[in-house]
Design a protein that fits this description.
12 helices, alpha/beta, eight-stranded parallel β-barrel
Length: about 290
């Protein structure tokens, strides 16, 4: 369930900044048709930081309803207050969600012991599968492999999304946690090599606009056809990089709008639409990847 090309789905919005559920329905169908392996709803790319609690829950639940069992949906449930992350996790009990993705507490800069106790408390509050999410570039805290190993002993902590781009960690975590502990890349540019080194898949920004290519690439990787997978990855590399020319999800929402996947590329403040100076870079990347003709 937690492997292959998994999309960190954008949350489409209208001109007033309200969630565009018509575009959301279109996105779900797009990913099912393209062969995406799972949807992560309202993670960082889904603008979890600026949705209200009610909106957050509604978007995830609506995504589950739209998927209707055809594709697993994982809920973003992270927060920098442990009690808030527990609340989010509990709100998804009984919704049909496949699991929870919980980012390390941002801004607080907890110790490794604090991180351990944070995730332990979340896991003990619900039976839902929990995926750890380590992204030091956004949170200013690094969940170290030794702490991951402690957490992996808790039954419903089943894996980690690692966005450090430190490929050596794949082997470190496998040795510490065993082969059954799920390792997912959070970095598109190194995602394929992550899997070549023993990872299970990627939670991808690129998949928002190149879903079929990403799905095919990781299917090939699962089959051991890495040479063919690398050919696709090389074509997508400019996209992997230029979708971060400004803070995610600014470029990818603009790209999704450019491709007609969502009605508008609107975001909520403090994020703003892609600057005119950056737009040609994203267009060029879309063209080089073959996504935009």
């Amino acid at each position: 369930m937690f492997s292959g090309s998994m999309v960190a789905l954008v949350t489409p919005m209208d001109e007033a900044g309200e969630v565009d559920y018509t575009s959301l329905a279109n996105l779900v169908e797009y990913h099912i048709a393209a062969g995406t392996d799972a949807i992560v709803s309202v993670g960082t790319t889904g603008e979890s930081a600026t949705l209200t609690v009610d909106e957050h829950v509604k978007v995830v639940v609506k995504t589950i309803e739209l998927a209707n069992g055809r594709i697993p949906v994982i809920a973003g449930t992270g927060a920098n207050a442990t009690h808030e992350a527990i609340t989010f996790s509990k709100l998804f009990i009984g919704t049909g969600v496949a699991g929870c993705l919980s980012v390390t507490p941002y801004y607080n800069k907890p110790t490794q012991e604090g991180l351990y106790l944070h995730y332990k408390a979340i896991a003990e509050a619900t039976d839902l599968p929990q995926i750890l999410y380590n992204v030091p570039g956004r949170t200013a805290v690094d969940l170290l492999p030794e702490t991951v190993a402690r957490l992996a002993k808790i039954d419903n902590i089943v894996g980690i999304k690692d966005a450090t781009a430190d490929l050596d960690r794949v082997q470190q975590i496998r040795e510490l946690c065993g082969e059954d502990f799920i390792q997912l890349s959070g970095d598109d540019a190194t995602g394929l090599e992550f899997v070549e080194r023993g990872g299970h898949g990627v939670i991808s920004v690129t998949a928002n606009v190149a879903a079929a290519d990403m799905a095919k690439m990781f299917k090939l990787a699962r089959e051991g056809q890495f040479e063919a997978a690398r050919e696709i990855n090389a074509r997508l590399m400019s996209l992997h990089k230029n979708l971060f020319v400004e803070s995610n999800p600014i470029p990818v929402k603009w790209a999704a709008h450019k491709l007609g996947l969502i009605e508008l590329g609107e975001l909520r403040l403090p994020l703003t639409v892609l600057s005119e100076s950056a737009q040609p870079k994203v267009v060029e990347a879309l063209q080089e990847s073959g996504v935009l003709q």
